[in-house]
Structure formats: C-alpha cells, structure tokens
C-alpha cells in the first residue's frame, strides 16, 4: 500500500543574528579616533590594516565606517575607499551656524516645556564645573562644556534636537578643544554666559535668553576662522588636502559673510 504521508521537509538552517553590539563597540571606538583626528585629515583609511589591528571582519568594519560617513566625520570615494575629512574653515563655519539654529530652537522650547527642577539641575551642574575649573585639564573642560550644551538642549524635551546637536558636537570637538586650550578672557565670558542663559530660561524670558545664546555662539563663530587655521597647522594636512593658503581664502569669504 502506497504511503500517503507527505515527504518530510528539510529543516531550515537557523539564521545567525548579526552581533549588533560588536558593530556598536567598533563604531564608538572609530568615532573616538576620528574625533581626535587619529586618522590624518585628508588621508585614506587602510581598511585591511585597521581590520587586522582591531581583529574584525571587513563587513563589520565597513558598517561602522559607513555610520561615520553618515555623521560627516568620514567621506567615501567610489573605487577608492574611506577618508578622514580634510579640515575646512567653511565646514567649521557652517557647523557653528547649525549649532546656533539648533540651540536657539532648544532654548525656545525649554522656556515653554522645561520644569523648574530640571532647569535648576542644569544650573547646578555648571556651577559645580566652574567651581572645579582650575583643577580640570583642557580635555575635561571641553567635555564638561559639551555636556552643559547637551543638557541645555535636552531641556527642550525634543529627542531629535538632542540627537542632531550630538552630531554637531562630535564634528566640532577638536575645534572646541583648540578654542578652550587657548584660554582667554572670551572663554571666561562664554562660561559666564552659560549661567546667564540658564537663569533667563528659569525666568521664562525667551527673547533675552535667545539674545545671550546667539551672542555667545556668534563669538565662537568668529573665532572659528582662527581656530581652523590653528587646526591646519597642528595636523599637517596630507597632500591634496586643503593648504593653509586655501584656508586663508575661505577665511576671507567667511569674514565677508559676517560683515554682510
């Protein structure tokens, strides 16, 4: 008698989930290197060597590198590979303008939405930083300043704003380090402006808070030109990247924009 039983299907091979945590850890490691310009500006990244150093597969490495391209820290050239973006005064200038727009919107929303206790917590954080500022290394002071601005934007209770400001912060990290390293009367003025802005938010004085914030970042914007030239001299751009002469020309264009 012929069997009526259906033939048994071959068991499907279980899928192997991609280890998202490995990609995330690698991305954070490479992001940190890119922020510190351990990858020379304008230079091509040797994927084979980097993969061997980190002990990761090429596919995993490329996924992490592509995330840095999306953030603007690296660029990808077809048929050539990944490059650390060259230092550009125009880019730094543009990023500071983006920062002004994002933080102004954050302050506007913070006045409307932030509870008094959250505003007070941000103020207390910065007061503590200033109390310890003489003992803080430049790198720690930069991180503290970035954290203040992150907390300020978080008062808006808008997660997308916070996400975008984090990207801008990472891309201007070295510029901020150069800026604060050259500690001057303007830096002290800028740090005092932090408290002024947060106090005006607490008082729900929108226009005054926006004015102080804009003036604070606008000074950074004007200093960005000199900061970028210092970065060019410091990192010795690779052949084919922007020369100091090109930076000077871009600086002139930026100054003309400010004067207009």
Describe this structure in words.
It comes from Aquincola tertiaricarbonis. This is GntR family transcriptional regulator. Pfam families: FCD (PF07729), GntR (PF00392). The protein is mostly helical. It folds into two domains: 20-84, Arc Repressor Mutant, subunit A; 89-259, GntR ligand-binding domain-like (Four Helix Bundle (Hemerythrin (Met), subunit A), Up-down Bundle). Helices cover 70% and strands 3% of the residues. It contains eleven helices and two strands; from the N terminus they run H-H-H-E-E-H-H-H-H-H-H-H-H. The chain has helices spanning 20-35, 47-54, 58-71, 89-113, 116-132, 138-154, 159-171, 173-181, 185-202, 206-235, 244-259; strands at residues 74-77, 81-84. A two-stranded antiparallel sheet has the order 1-2. Strand 1 (74-77) and strand 2 form a beta hairpin. Helix 1 packs across helix 3, helix 5 (116-132) packs antiparallel against helix 6 (138-154) and helix 6 (138-154) packs across helix 8. The termini are far apart. Mean pLDDT is 81; it is low at 9-18 and 237-243.
Q: Which percent band covers the strand fraction? A: under 5%
Question: Which geometry do the CA atoms define?
Answer: globular
Mean pLDDT: 81
Class per helix and strand makeup: mainly alpha
Count of distinct strands: 2
- The radius of gyration computed from the alpha-carbon positions, rounded to a whole number of angstroms, is 23 Å
What is the number of helical segments per DSSP (H or I, 4+ residues)?
11
Keywords: DNA-binding, Transcription, Transcription regulation
Domain HTH gntR-type: 20-87
Organism: Aquincola tertiaricarbonis
Protein name: GntR family transcriptional regulator
């Amino acid at each position: 008698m012929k069997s009526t039983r259906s033939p048994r299907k071959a068991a499907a091979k279980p899928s192997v989930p991609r280890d998202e945590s490995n990609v995330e850890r690698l991305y954070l490691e490479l992001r940190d290197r890119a922020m510190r310009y351990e990858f020379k500006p304008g230079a091509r990244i040797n994927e084979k060597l980097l993969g061997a150093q980190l002990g990761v597969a090429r596919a995993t490495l490329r996924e992490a590198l592509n995330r840095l391209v999306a953030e603007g820290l690296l660029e990808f050239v077809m048929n050539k590979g990944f490059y650390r973006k060259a230092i550009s005064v125009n880019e730094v200038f543009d990023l500071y303008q983006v920062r002004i727009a994002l933080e102004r919107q954050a302050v506007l929303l913070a006045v409307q939405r932030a509870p008094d206790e959250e505003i007070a917590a941000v103020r207390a954080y910065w007061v503590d930083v200033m109390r310890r500022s003489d003992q803080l290394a430049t790198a720690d002071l930069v991180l503290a300043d970035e954290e203040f601005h992150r907390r300020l934007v978080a008062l808006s209770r808008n997660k997308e704003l916070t996400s975008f400001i984090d990207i801008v912060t990472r891309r201007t990290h070295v510029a901020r380090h150069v800026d604060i390293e050259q500690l001057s009367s303007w830096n002290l003025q800028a740090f005092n402006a932090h408290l002024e802005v947060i106090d005006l938010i607490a008082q729900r004085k929108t226009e005054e808070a926006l004015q102080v914030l804009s003036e604070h970042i606008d000074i950074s914007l004007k200093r960005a030109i000199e900061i970028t030239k210092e970065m060019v001299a410091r990192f010795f751009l690779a052949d084919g990247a922007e020369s100091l002469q090109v930076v000077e020309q871009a600086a002139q264009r930026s100054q003309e924009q400010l004067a207009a």
